[in-house]
Batch of 3 targets.
Target 1
Amino acid sequence: MSEAEQLQAAAPEAAAAAAAILDALNATDSNGTEALNATAKFVATPEGTALAYGSLVLMALLPIFFGAIRSVSCSKSKNASEMPETITGRDAARFPIIASCTLFGLYLFFKVFSQDYINLLLSVYFFGLGVLGLSHTMSPLMSRVYPASFPNKQYQLLLTQGSGESKEEIINYEFDTKNLVCLLISTVVGVWYLMKKHWIANNLFGLAFALNGVELLHLNNVSTGCILLGGLFVYDVFWVFGTNVMVTVAKSFEAPIKLVFPQDLLEKGLGASNFAMLGLGDIVIPGIFIALLLRFDVSLKRNSRTYFYSSFLAYIFGLGLTIFIMHTFKHAQPALLYLVPACVGFPCVVALIKGELADMFRYEEVPAEEESAEEDSSESEKKDQ
C-alpha cells in the first residue's frame, strides 16, 4: 500500500471522526467576530471588512469546487484504500444527535477542565490529522510538478507478527519520494501551526480538512442529503439561538476547524489579529450535497453540469446572505439557516422546471466496493459458462 493510499485510507475515517466536531463548531465564530472584538474595541474599516469577508467566501468555494470534482474520480475508484465513506439515511438521521452530544460534551469539558490543557491535546491531535490531510491534498499537485529528472525511489515499511503460515502483516507501508516531499512540507506547516498558531497555517490545514471532507464523505442519494441537511438545519438554529453552548465552545476551541481572515490586515499586515471566521461545518456539510449533485450530473452523461452549478451558485447566495445579516444585526448567525434552503431549494426548483425532479431523487450512488463485487461476480459467471 503506497503512502498516498495510506493517506486516502486514513482520510475517510479521520473525516468521519472529525465530522461531528466540524459541524458542532460550524457555529459562528464563523458567523461573527464580535466576541473577539469586544475586548479590543476594534472597529474594522469598510475596506478591511470587505477584504476579510470576500476572502472567506473565496476560501469556502475552493474546497467545495475542487473537492466535488475529485469526488467524481474517488467514487469510481476500485482500490479499497481509496474508496469514500458513504453516508446512509440512517447515518444522516443520527448525525444531528451525535453532533449535539459532541457539542455539549465539549461544553462540559471546557467548564470542568482547564482550557489550556484541552487545547494542547486538541492541537496535537489536529496536528496529526492536518499533516495527513494536507499531504493527501497536495499529492495530485506534486505528481504534476515533480521534476521528471529527479529520482522517484520506492520504499516499503513492513512490520509482521508471527512466522510461517501464521505470519500476519501489521504494517505494510509503501511510499515514494513524491510522498515524502508532500509529508515533509505538511510537517513543516504543522510545526509552524503548533509553534505560532498563525492564521495562514490554520487556513492551510482548514482548507485541507474541508477539501478532504467534500471529496471523501459521500451521500448515497439526494433523500439522504435532505435528511442530513434538514436535521443539521434544526440543530444549528437550536444551538445558536436557543442556548449559548455553541458560541461558548467556538470561542474556547483552538484548532484548525475554521477559516479565518483578519479585518485589520491593511493596517497591521500579516501580524493582524482581529479575525472574521467561517466554520468548516458550513463548508463541508453543504459541500458534500453539492458534490452529490455533480455526480448526478455525471450520471446523466450530458455535457452540462446544471445541478452542480445551480447548487454552487445557491451556496454563494446563502453564504452572502449569512454575512449580510450577521453584519447588519451584529449577532452570531447559524449559517445553515440560510445555506440549507438555498442549496436544497435551488436545484429542486431547477429539476422541477426541467421535469427531472423524480429522476434526481431516484438517483442512487452505488458504493464502489459493491460495484466492484458485482463486476467480479459477473466475470466469474461468464467464466463458468
Note: The chain has 15 helices and six strands.
Target 2
Amino acid sequence: MCDEDFSLITDSQGSQNTLDGILNAISKCKVQHNQLLKEQQDLSRARDDQEDLAKQFRQRVVKLRISLEEDDNNQARDVDSERKKMAALHDEESRLKREIQRAEEELQLEEESTHHLKQQTDVSTAAVPEKKVVFTGVTGDGANTLNFDVKPHIVYPMEEGTALITFEDEEVAQKILSLREHKVDLGGDCAITLEAKLVQLLVPCQVELDTEVCSRRILVSKLPKVGDDRLLDKLEIHFSKSKNGGGEVEESDMLHDSGNVVITFTENNIAKGLADKQYHDVEFEKGRKNSVKVTPFLNGEITSFQTRLSACGRTVLLTGIPAVMEQENLQDLLEIHFQKTSNGGGEVDAFLYNPLGQHTLALFEEDCPTEDQSQ
C-alpha cells in the first residue's frame, strides 16, 4: 500500500450497479451469516446432545462396571460359599465315618457282651414263692446263722421263759391264740398263767442275683449211686485227662442237697470245653461207663434282698413261764396241758421250752403237710 494520493473516478451508472451488487452481496452475506449462526446453533445443540450421550454412556459404563464388579464379588462370594459348603460336607463325611467306626466298635462290644450274657442264667431275678414255716423241735447253734438258703431255714432266738409249741392242726393253734391266756395246773396248789402269742418271722420274698459263668468250675449231674469218695475219685481221674478234654483238677466238692458235684480246675480254659460237650461217659465201675451231664457253674452275688413278715400257722409262742421246777418236768406238764381238748388243745407235733437263764436258737423249716393234711 502506498501513500500517494489517488482519486476515485466513478461512473454513476456503474456506481449504481456496484452498490446494488454490494447490497446483494451484503444480503447474501447476511443470509449466509444467519445460516452459519443456525448451523452453529445446530452444531452446538448436536455437541450438547453428544456430550449428554457421552455423559450417559459414561454413566452407563460406570454402572455396568459397578454391576460387573458386584457380579464378580457375588460370584466370588458364591464360589467361597460353595467352597465352604464343600469343606463342611467333607467335615461331615469325616464325622460320619468316625461315627460309623465308633458304632461298629460299639456293636462289636455289644456282640461280645451278648455272647457273654448267653453264658449266664436267663433269669437273674427270682421271686421267692410264699411258703409256710413251722418249728419242728430242732435247735441249732449260731455258727450257721449267716448261711443263706432259698429254702426256708430260719433261726429264731427264743427269749427266756418262753416255749414254742407246734400243733398238727392249724385250727387248734388258732384256737389257742384266740383264748390268749391259759392257766396251767402243775399239780397240788401250783398253777401258772401263760400268754399265747402269734409267731411272725421275716422270710425272703424277692432275691435279685447277679450271676456269671465261672471259668474254672463245672457242675456234674445225673450221677450214679456210688459212694461219695469213690464218685469224687472217678470224676477227678476222668476229668484230669487231656484226652477227655480235661485238665489238672484243683478240687472236687459234693453238693449233698442236690447230689451233684462241683469240679474246679487250675486253668481257665478247661471248663468251657467240657460244658460245651455237655454229656461225658465216665467209667465208675471197671468195664462199665455212665453218661454224666456237665453244665457251666454259676457264681452268684445277691444284689437285692427283700423280706416280709410271715405268720406261722401251726406254731404258737407261750410266754411268761416261771422257773418253778426242772426243765424236763415243766416241759412235759406244759405239753400234756396243751394236748387236752378240754383246754382247747390238740395233737402236738413239736414242743420246746427255754427256761430262764438259757439261750436257745429254734430252727423253723418249710411246713410240709403230712399225708393226712394233704388229702
Note: The chain has a mean pLDDT of 82.
Target 3
Amino acid sequence: MQRESPPKKRRLGEEASDIIPATDLFLRCANLILPWLNSQELAAVSRTCKTLSLVSKSLTSHRSLDAARSFENIPIPFRNSVDSHPYAYFIYTPFQIPASSPPPRQWWGAAAGCGSESTRAYLDSVSERRRFGVSLVDESGEGMCGCQCERCEEGYCKCLAFAGMEEIANECGSGCGCGSDCSNRVTQKGISVGLKIVRDEKKGWCLYADQLIKQGQFICEYAGELLTTEEARKRQNVYDKLRSTQSFASALLVIREHLPSGQACLRINIDATRIGNIARFINHSCDGGNLSTVLLRSSGALLPRLCFFAARDIYAEEELSFSYGDVRVTGENRGNKLNCCCGSSCCFGTLPCENT
C-alpha cells in the first residue's frame, strides 16, 4: 500500500490564491517601471527578452495614440506613413512651467496609474507659478531700458517679433472672483478641437486639424519651460551645435512685448524642446499661415501667454501654421540658416532666425 505524501507546509497566513506566478510578478514590475522610460531607454529594454519586447510594443502603440498623455480634454494621436518613428518623445505640460534641469520623468504608459497621478500633481503645483524667465532688455539685449526698434509707430512695435500678432487680450484669472466656468477663461480650459500630429518627409512632425475648425476658435497656447535670457542663450548654443552634427530641431521661442512706457521690452523665453505641448509641432509659413497669435494676459498673472486662434476656417487634414517672424540671418550668421519647406508661393527659402 502506497503512503500519501504529506501536504506541503505553507507559511502562516498564506493561501494558495496568494502565490503569484513569477511571470505575472515580472509583468507587474515591468508595467510599473517601463512607462517611466524615454524612447531610447524603452528600445534598449525591449531587446533584452521576448516578454519585455511585447510590453514595450504595447507601450509604444499606446504612446502613439495620445501625445498629450491624457492632460488634454481629447487625445492627440501621432500618424506616420513616412518612416518607422511611431511618436516623438518629450515631457508634456499644458502650460508654462519653471525651467528644470534635468527634466523630470513622466509616466506615459498603457493606462492611468500612480505615475500619471504624481505627474499631474506636480503640474498642478506649478500651474499658478508663472513668474519666471522674464527680463527687460535694450536693443543689445543687455540693458534694463530701451527698445530694439529704431522707431516705434503708434500702435505698432517691431519688438513684437511675430508677424500676425494682432492684439493683446485679457482673460479672467486668479485675481478675479469668478470660477473656472467663467466664459472669459477660454484659453484656460485646455484643447477642445480635434488635432493630430502627422509625419512629413521634409518637415518632420507637423500639427494638423482633425476636424473643421471655425474662424476664431482657440487652438492651444505655446507651453514649455520659462527660461532666463542667460539660460535661453546657453541652450540655443547647445541646440546650434546639435543641429550642426545631427538632425535636430529645437523649439525655443523668444517673445518681446513692447511696454506702454516705450522705454523697455518685456522678454519671455519659452523652450518647448524638452518640455512642452503640441504647439511645438506648429511649423512656420512665409504667407502668415492659418493661425493668429495673441499675447494674452490673465488677471493675477505677471506673465502673458502666447495663444493660437484660427485666423480663418481650417478644414480637416489641413496643416496648422503661423509666421515665426521676418528676421532672416545674413552675413556672418548665414551658416546658421534653416531651410524653409512651407511650400507657400511667397516662400523665402529660409526660416526666420535671430540672435537669441
Note: Residues 128-139, 141-166 have pLDDT under 50 and may be disordered.
